[in-house]
């Protein structure tokens, strides 16, 4: 591969924004890709993938390059030289690469393979938490979570079926394969910007990981029921629930952030999902009004997101142990309060995109100890390593 100066400069500028200005990697990638309209598909792929790669392997590259946590331009170039060297790319004779110790880089990389926090490029606290909660399993999970995420689509069965969607995408030169574990899912054979496709504009699919696609079916919804999605956000699961309910019945989508619900509304319109009402939570009043009203309640709780690190590699650097402590408290409170919306004989799913037992089965266990009116029907842990998709947890409870 030959390096093009303007593309590499764009990557370095993006890293400066992410590391020094604390901007989110996905937003910076979006912004960077708009910099030059003349860039072709391969240029865009290089820019996006290199930024994500550099962010993912930040700690490892810092350690190899000796750049520590200082991201001056010179140090960003040093980190980039490590990336290129480890990829086997011949460094051009640009002044930034003068004196790059190619052999030392490779030697240091080999040496660091025996220390997990460097090998997997994670902060100390995360390595300690992962090991304390998952033991030996942490080794394989974190390895998988450092891989690049594939693009997965969920067929919008309100408008089409998986076979037809696959055919229509093929006509737009987007090749896909089916996913055995998720009946409505298609995985892209090659990464593409699917949001530009006609199929997307017509609302024939949503982008949603295969593990995330297991959550709505876990709630066992039926057309005609009253369903409350308590942490609906921009509605990934709400829209799936609407499809499973064939647009019949009622879904109330709640969240504390109105702007996320506004996005949900836009998506619902595109998808032809007509049975969703959004309500911003502005205090306990909105919850009390819904007490004992729902056949089904989904709590897709805020969480550490450790199960989706392959999608958001910069959360490794933005998360911290205090945040996880706080989020565990929020999860316990949410579960305790929102479960009251389930009517007798109704069902509740508690789900997270974390793989830490302290956010998952331990939360459910503590809840059940205090709420004898609920019993567990089943739960499911989706391991990133075993599935190749995101890490998730879901528990189905019933109110007696
Ligand atoms: C895991 S995300 C939800 C993702 C969404 N269900 C989806 O499938 O796209 C968790 C959501 O919980 C919301 N949230 C945080 N605290 C909350 C609270 N106390 N009550 C309701 N929602 C809350 C966040 O704004 C966020 O949108």
TrEMBL record:
Pfam family, one: RsmF-B_ferredox
Gene Ontology MF terms in the entry: methyltransferase activity
InterPro entries attached to this UniProt entry: MeTrfase_RsmB-F_NOP2_cat, MeTrfase_RsmB-F_NOP2_dom, RCMT, RsmB-like_ferredoxin, SAM-dependent_MTases_sf
Keywords: Methyltransferase, RNA-binding, S-adenosyl-L-methionine, Transferase
Stored CDD domains: AdoMet_MTases
UniProt key word Transmembrane: no
Active site: 353
Binding annotation for S-adenosyl-L-methionine: 255, 300
An example Gene Ontology biological process: methylation
Sequence ranges assigned to domain SAM-dependent MTase RsmB/NOP-type in this UniProt record: 141-400
UniProt similarity note: Belongs to the class I-like SAM-binding methyltransferase superfamily. RsmB/NOP family.
PANTHER family (alphabetical): NOP2 YEAST -RELATED NOL1/NOP2/FMU SUN DOMAIN-CONTAINING, RIBOSOMAL RNA SMALL SUBUNIT METHYLTRANSFERASE B-RELATED
Name by which UniProt lists this protein: Methyltransferase domain-containing protein
Organism placement in taxonomy: Bacteria, Pseudomonadati, Bacteroidota, Flavobacteriia, Flavobacteriales
């Amino acid at each position: 591969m030959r390096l093009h100066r303007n593309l590499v400069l764009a990557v370095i500028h993006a890293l400066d924004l992410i590391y020094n200005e604390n901007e989110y990697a996905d937003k910076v990638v979006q912004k960077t890709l708009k910099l030059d309209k003349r860039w072709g598909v391969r240029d865009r792929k290089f820019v996006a993938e290199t930024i994500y790669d550099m962010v993912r392997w930040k700690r490892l590259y810092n350690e190899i390059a000796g750049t520590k946590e200082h991201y001056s331009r010179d140090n960003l170039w040093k980190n980039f030289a490590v990336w290129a060297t480890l990829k086997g790319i011949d460094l051009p004779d640009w002044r930034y690469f003068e004196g790059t110790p190619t052999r030392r880089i490779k030697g240091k990389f080999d040496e660091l393979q025996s220390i997990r926090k460097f090998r997997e490029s994670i902060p100390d606290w995360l390595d300690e938490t992962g090991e304390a909660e998952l033991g030996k399993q942490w080794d394989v999970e974190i390895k998988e979570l450092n891989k690049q995420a594939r693009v997965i689509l969920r067929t919008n069965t309100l408008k089409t079926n998986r076979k037809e969607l696959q055919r229509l995408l093929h006509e737009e030169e987007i090749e896909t394969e089916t996913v055995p574990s998720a009946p409505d899912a298609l995985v892209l054979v090659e990464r593409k910007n699917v949001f530009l496709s006609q199929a997307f504009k017509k609302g024939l699919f949503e982008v949603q990981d295969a593990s995330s696609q297991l959550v709505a079916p876990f709630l066992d919804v039926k057309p005609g029921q009253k369903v409350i999605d308590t942490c609906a956000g921009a509605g990934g699961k709400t829209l799936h629930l609407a499809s499973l309910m064939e647009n019949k019945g009622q879904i109330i989508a709640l969240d504390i952030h109105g702007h996320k619900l506004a996005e949900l509304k836009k998506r619902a319109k595109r998808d032809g999902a007509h049975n969703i009402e959004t309500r911003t939570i502005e205090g306990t009043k909105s919850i009390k009004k819904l007490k004992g009203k729902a056949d089904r309640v989904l709590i897709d709780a805020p969480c550490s997101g450790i199960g989706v690190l392959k999608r958001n590699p910069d959360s490794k650097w933005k998360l911290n142990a205090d945040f996880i402590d706080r989020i565990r408290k929020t999860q316990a409170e949410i579960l305790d309060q929102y479960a009251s919306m389930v009517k007798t004989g109704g069902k509740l799913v508690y789900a997270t995109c974390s793989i830490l037992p302290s956010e998952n089965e331990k939360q459910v266990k503590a809840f059940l100890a205090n709420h004898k009116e609920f019993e567990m029907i089943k739960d499911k842990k989706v391991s990133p390593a075993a599935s190749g998709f995101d890490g998730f947890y879901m528990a189905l409870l019933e109110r007696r």
